[in-house]
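Re-running the complex after MR caught last week's input typo. The corrected sequence lines follow. Everything else is unchanged.
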Amino acid sequence: MKDLIQNIYSNDLHFVTSIIFAILIFASTLFFIMGKIKPHVDFGELKSRTKSWWVMASIFIAATLLNTTITYVSLGFLSFLAFRELYSLLDFRNSDRRAIFWALVAIPIQYYLAYIQWYGAFIIFIPVVMFLILPVRLVLKGETEGIIKSMSNLQWSLMLTVFGLSHMAYLISLPDVDGFQSGGRGLLLFLVFLTEINDVLQFTWGKLLGRKKIIPKVSPNKTWMGFIGGLCSTVLIGYGLAFLTPLSTPQVLLVSFMIALSGFLGDVVMSAVKRDIGVKDTGSAIPGHGGILDRIDSLSYSAPVFFHIVYYMAY
Amino acid sequence: MKTLLKIIYSIILRNFLKLIVGVKMDKTDFLKDEDQFIIVANHNSHLDTMSIMASLPSSIVHKVKPVAAKDHFGKTRLSTFLSEKLINSLLIERKRDKENPSNDPICQMIAELDKGNSLIIFPEGTRGKPEVEEPLKAGIAIILQQRPNIKFVPAYMQGMGLAMPKGDSLIIPHSSRLEYGKAQLAKSTQIDAILNQIQENFDQLKQKMEIGESQEKLLLG
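Corrected-run output:
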C-alpha cells in the first residue's frame, strides 16, 4: 500500500489518474446522496452521464497509459466511429460510396503518419492530398447532381473527425524535452482532461448562474456566465496541472485559455450542424451524452489548437 | 456445425456488425422463451440476414434458418454448400410448384417448421431499392394460415440498405438499426388479414424509430 502511494506521488501521470477517479467517486457519491435527500428531483440523466464518464475515463486512461501502439489504434478507432456517425447523418448519395471508402482508408494512413513522426506528411495528408483525391473519385463516378455538396461534406467531416483528432495521437510522438518526465502522454492527458472538465464546468456554471444566452439560435444552453465561469476555472485547473507540460507559467495560462475557448467553439459548431440536420444528438452510443461526436466535438477543435501552440512554443 | 455457426454469427459477425458497420441491435432474450417462431422482416440488404442471425441468442442460432432464393444463393454447387452450411439457410424456388411438393417453396418451409426449426422470412421477396419498402407477398400468410400455432416475430431494419445496397458488394459502414416487435399469433386465417397484421407491425416499428427522432427534435426547441 505504501509503495503504491509512493508510486502515485512520484509519477505525474498516475497522480492525475488518481485525481480523475477521485472526481468521479465524488460525483457518483454526490448524486447518490442528492437522490436520497431530494427523492422528488430526477437525477437520472446526471447519474447516467456520470456512469458513462466512468466508462469513458477508464477506457481512455487504459488506452493512454498501457502501450503506445494501443493508444494509436484506439485513437484511430475513435476517429473512425466519429467519422461514421457524422457521414451517416449527412445523407450522402449512393454514388458517393466509393469516395467514402477512400476517406475511410485515409484514417489508418493519417494515424500511421503520426506514428512514424513524419510531421510534413501528417500535416498535409488530409488538407492537401485527400482534398485533391476525393473530388476526383466523385467525378470519376460521373454523377454530377449534388456533387458540390458531397465534395464539401466529405472533406469537412474528414477534417473535423480525423485530421483534428489525429493531433491527439501526434502529441505522443513528440520527442522528449530535457527535464520533463511525462512526455507526450502528459500533454495528451492535459489536453483531454482540460477539454472535458471545461465542458463539465461550463455546463455547471451555466446551470448555477447562467441567464444571458450567447447564441440562443444555435445552442440555447450556452450562457455568458457558463462560458466565462468555465473559462476561468479551466485556466485555474490548467495552472494546477502545469507539471504535465514542459511549458512556463504564462504559456500554460495561454494554452489553458485557448483549450477552453476552442472547446467551446467546437461544441457550438457541432450544435449548429445538428440543428441543420434536425437531430438533438448525433447518436446514442454513450448513455446520457448522446453519440460519440456529442462528446468529442470540443476535442476536435481543441486538439489541433493545443497541439500547434505547444509545438510552436516548446519544440 | 452447431459450434461453427455460433462462432460465425455470435462472435465474428456480431462484433463486426456492431463495431465496424455500426448496427444497433435490439435485445433478443425474449426469443429464448419461444420454442419456435418465424421472424418476418423488411429487406434491403444482404446485411439484413446477417444482422438478424447475429442478434439472436447464441444458444438458438443453429435452429433458425433464413429463407433464401435458390436462383441467387444456389447458382453453383459451391454457393449452395456455403449457403446451407455456413449461413444455415433454406434455399427455395421463387415460383410455386404445386405438383411437386419437394420443389414447392411453401411446402419446403412448412416441412422445415415441422422439423422443429424456426425461419427468417423476408416477405418483400427482394431487396429492391435501398431503404424503400416493397409490397408484401402472400407466402408468409399461407404458412401462418396452415400452421396457426406458430408465432411470428416482426423485425424492422433501417440503414443497412445504405451500408450494402443491392448490386454493390462493397460494405461501407453506416449507422443502422434493428428493432424487434412482440412474438404473436396470426389473428385471422384470411391471407389479407394476416398480411395487414404484419404490415401494421412494420409500420409501428418504423414509427417507433421515427418518433424517437422527432421527440429529440422537439427537445431542441
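None of the earlier attempt is carried over here. Residues 2-314 of chain A form one domain. Residues 284 and 290 of chain A are 5 Å apart (CA to CA).
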